[in-house]
Amino acid sequence: MPIAEDSVHQARTDLVRELRAHALVIGEVTLTSGRIAQYLVDVKRAILLPGGFRALAPLVAAAAREWGATAVGGMTMGADPIACAALAGGADAKAFFVRKEVKAHGLSRRIEGPLLTPEDRCLIVEDVVTTGGSTIKAIEAVRGEGLSVCGVLVVCDRLAGGAEAIQAAADGAPYRALTTIDDVYPERPDRA
C-alpha cells in the first residue's frame, strides 16, 4: 500500500533531522574514495537508531513499490540497514547484500540473502554517495549475476559527481537521493 504524500514528506523531514543530529561529523576525514573532506555524513550512525530507521523504512519501501523492485540491496555495510528498512517498511521484496569479493568458503557467493532469479528487479541502495564507486560496483555485481537493476536509491548524496557516474552505469534505471548534503549540512564551508 502506497504511503500518503504528507507521510512521505514527514518521513523525509524526520530523516534529515536524524542525519543532522547523529550522522554529521565535522572535521578532516578520508572518504571511501580516498578524498580528504572537512566533514563526513556517517549515515549508519543515524539509521541504526530507532528514529532514523523509522524515518527511512517507509521511504525505501515506497521507492521499491514505485519502481516494482522485487529485491533490495547493495554493497555490504552501506546497503545492509537500508535493505532491512525496506522490509520493515512493508516492501514486498527480498533483501540482499553484495560482498566486495566472492566468499572463499561455504556457498562461495558474492550476493548474499535469498536466491535471486533473472525475473527479480533489483533496487540498488547505498547510504552515502560521493564518487559513486561502491554503488557502481554493486550494479556491476548484480548485472554480472544476470539480474536487472530497476533503480538506485541513496540516503545522502554529497553532490560530488557520484550521481552522474551512477546514472551512466545504471543505464537508464532511475536514480534518487532521499537527501543531499545541502539538506544535512547547509552551512558547510565548501558549499557552492
List keywords for this structure.
alpha/beta; two-stranded antiparallel ribbon; 7 helices; 8 strands; 192 residues; Rossmann fold; 6-stranded mixed beta sheet
Quick gist of this model?
This protein has 192 residues and is of the alpha/beta class. Helix content is 39%, strand content 26%. The chain has helices at 5-23, 43-47, 50-66, 80-88, 133-144, 162-170, 181-184, and strands at residues 24-30, 36-41, 71-75, 94-98, 111-112, 121-129, 148-157, 175-180.
Tell me about this structure.
It contains seven helices and eight strands, in the order αββααβαβββαβαβα. The model has no long low-confidence stretch (mean pLDDT 93). The chain is an alpha/beta fold and 192 residues long. It has a single domain (5-184), classed as 3-Layer(aba) Sandwich (Rossmann fold). 45% of the residues are buried. A six-stranded mixed beta sheet has the order 5-4-3-6-7-8, sandwiched between helices. The protein has a two-stranded antiparallel ribbon with strand order 1-2. It starts with a helix and ends in an 8-residue tail after the last helix. The chain is globular. A hairpin with a 5-residue loop joins strand 1 and strand 2 (36-41).
